[in-house]
Design brief:
- The protein is mainly alpha-helical.
- The protein has 2 domains: 88 residues, Endonuclease Iii, domain 2 (Orthogonal Bundle); 100 residues, Orthogonal Bundle (Endonuclease III, domain 1).
- The chain has 12 helices and no strands.
- It is elongated, with a radius of gyration of 18 Å.
Length: 211
């Protein structure tokens, strides 16, 4: 089966399962999305959604949040993994937004990735979901499933992103990355996964070396 044939099967199945996938992180605008995605690294979305209501009550924009100290931010997000470094990044990010971007979240990859704590994946989520720019953020679920479906060699998330962008139509990227995340959580876990019982792995999955 070719990559194109697989992509059509995957798109059709995911459209049927998740026709309108919501963004799993609670937010109201580009700023709160940016902070939520930054917090989500090495932490579950559930945990992020647990701490952000209080964080955003104290500061839901760069100006208000920058009025908190790093220690205050850290105390609010203490349940989240890597809280001290994330608190420092959030404080620094807010200062830069105020000093260089009139307090607004910039709408380019380069400017986003120049902010503290913002890597390519975080920038991709913000560009895709806040600004509607085609992007294909690759998290652990997408990286795992791309390998299982034989769409990438699994050597790096950078290579996986390139492969998926080449295989799937550009206009599908923004919704597909959400659909694949939900599918990975619901049907295709990292451990104790049975290929034959999976709605997609059983059809487009690797025949050998499956894990």
């Amino acid at each position: 089966m070719t990559s194109k044939e697989k992509s059509e099967i995957i798109i059709n199945k995911l459209e049927a399962l998740y026709p309108q996938p919501p963004i799993p992180l609670n937010h109201k605008d580009p700023f709160t999305l940016l902070i939520s995605v930054l917090l989500s690294a090495q932490t579950t979305d559930v945990m992020v959604n647990r701490v952000t209501p209080e964080l955003f009550r104290r500061g839901d924009n760069a100006e208000r949040l920058a009025q908190l100290s790093i220690d205050e931010i850290c105390q609010i997000i203490r349940q989240v993994g890597l809280a001290p470094s994330k608190a420092k990044a959030i404080y620094g990010l807010c200062r830069i937004l105020l000093e260089s971007h009139d307090g607004q979240v910039p709408g380019s990859f380069a400017e986003l990735e120049a902010l503290p704590g913002v890597g390519h994946k975080t920038a991709s989520v913000v560009m895709a979901q806040a600004f509607g720019v085609p992007a294909f953020p690759v998290d652990t679920h997408i990286h795992r499933l791309a390998w299982r479906w034989g769409l990438s060699n699994g050597k790096s998330v950078t290579q996986t992103e390139k492969d998926l962008k080449r295989i799937f139509p550009k206009e599908k990227w923004n919704v597909l990355h959400l659909q694949i995340i939900y599918f990975g959580r619901g049907y295709c876990p990292a451990r104790n996964h049975q290929r034959q019982g999976c709605p997609l792995c059983s059809v487009v999955g690797r025949k050998r070396g499956f894990k």
